Amino acid sequence: MHRQTVNRFIRAISNGDDKRDQKNSKFDLKSLIEAEQKSTKFKTVFGPSNFTKEKYELYKKYQIRVHNDDPEDLNEQSFDRFLCDAPFHQEEIEGTKAQWDLLNGWVENWPKVGQSPQLQKNKRIGPTHECYYLDDKLIAISVLDFLPTGISSIYFIWDPDYANLSLGTLSGLREIQMCHELNLGYYYLGYYIDDCDKMKYKLKFGGEILDLANEVYFPIPQVGDYMKDGKLFVCGTSKDTPDTLHREFALQNTGHPKSLATSRFKNESLIRDISELVYAFNSNTHHEAETAYKLLQHKLKLSDLTPDDLPLVVPGVTPVWQILEMTENGTIHEKLKVTVFSMSHGSFGSTRLKDLTPIGRKMIIQFIRLFGIAKIENSIILI
């Protein structure tokens, strides 16, 4: 599927010495890296996600010609906020010389980079721009977040004058290969919306999509029909029936969902969508959540819910019944300490759950539902 894209790009960056029999040669992504090693025409440069005029001009050209944006809606400030500013610590934004040297030298030093424990210590963590240059002209920018678990592709900008090179697809192939060679873990292609034509290219990479309720990654072809028209899907088996599904699934909130091979679905030949059984308004789930919240409200002295609060039933969020269970077994208790910064009073400090107001306690419980208790205990909460 990707052979033509890779071969076309290799021809574009070669110095006129690409003598391979491309029709009969075995397809291998390593040939792409080898071609980059030899090329004097093409290079990429990794660096911090900072603003430059050169980057902005390419972004503006791309948005106008590819996304049909109105030129008057584009400005340097919006580009800076969108793709340059990042919620990372300053040292992670700036990086170190060793990190940038490793990234900018990985093609030349391949394959020894991925096999060296010493080089592995210099893994990049933080927001990154990889700038693509052909004949010293900026033709693309890959906006990436380097994470402890892999690389997240945030956005890709390419010069419409080079549309024939399929740079978006090519960047995905290069980044997958880089993850492999540098032993970086997973490659995250970002959001996938089934009815968005501009995201269809992501299907070319196969890959997986997360079932939020089960916390399991499923191969996209296996659940593709469930996602049509933007529908929520929740995977289940023949054992999941209206009689057994009286509540939302418990969540771990560890930030590490399971693969299909390590989940309860690994030996199941028939997987079906049970989202309506779990989340329909006339299901038992909503009654269960309301009952659980009333008990939780009594135990922890929480305020009443308001329209602005997190709904009692939300796919992918820790269910209220599980929060109640955590309260009953002592995981959540009145002596639970949280670090709070009051925006209105300017006060900062550690406080116990029972010392907060009923509204404050309710807010903390909602944060625990969203992020898990471990993250709340190790965070500063702004209220």
What can you tell me about this protein's structure?
By secondary structure, this protein is an alpha/beta fold. The chain has three domains: 3-205, 3-Layer(aba) Sandwich (Aminopeptidase); 208-279, no CATH class; 294-382, no CATH class. Helices cover 34% and strands 17% of the residues. It has helices spanning 3-13, 30-38, 53-66, 76-83, 90-94, 97-104, 106-109, 117-120, 167-181, 220-223, 275-279, 284-300, 320-328, 358-371, 373-377; strands at 42-48, 126-134, 137-147, 150-158, 186-188, 208-211, 216-219, 235-236, 258-259, 272-273, 337-341, 348-352, 380-382. It has a five-stranded mixed sheet. The chain has a three-stranded mixed sheet with strand order 6-7-9. A three-stranded mixed sheet has the order 12-11-13, with no helix packed on it. Strand 11 (337-341) and strand 12 (348-352) form a beta hairpin. Helix 12 (284-300) packs parallel to helix 13 (320-328). The model has no long low-confidence stretch (mean pLDDT 88). One of its GO terms (cellular component) is cytoplasm. One of its GO terms (molecular function) is arginyl-tRNA--protein transferase activity. InterPro entries: Acyl_CoA_acyltransferase, N-end_Aminoacyl_Trfase, N-end_Aminoacyl_Trfase_C. This is N-end rule aminoacyl transferase C-terminal domain-containing protein. Residues 54-206 form the N-end rule aminoacyl transferase C-terminal domain.
